[in-house]
Predict the structure.
Amino acid sequence: MSAGRILLVDDDAAVRKSVRLTLAKAGYEVVDAEDGVQGVQAIRAGDNPLMVDTIICDLNMPKMDGREAIRFFRSQFPSVPVIVLTGYPESLSGEWLQDQSVTAVLTKPAQADDLIDAVDMAAQEHELFKDQFVV
């Protein structure tokens, strides 16, 4: 049984591979996308949205940057935690992170333990949110 499903959005194939392998070893199922457009398409999937427990998103990507993708994710899936994975953490403002309810910020290359800890925390946060609405 999977520990949860993660949507990973990053334009760097090596980063996607590393994160996917790290999280798979920790028991997570990872669906990845190489930019914001693919990330939005992956989670939207018509009338049957992809159910995910956490979204990990880079910021600097072609086609649709991470800020735009995260605004979409937060507006359409407000209960799904978002983790920012970036090589440029200094470009983030605390106000923007708070406005978007970002759960965690990881700097590339993220250490495996830090990545797993952040995803575990986010998945637990999502599970608690879902439990509040189960009748």
About this structure: The chain is about 45% helix and 20% strand.
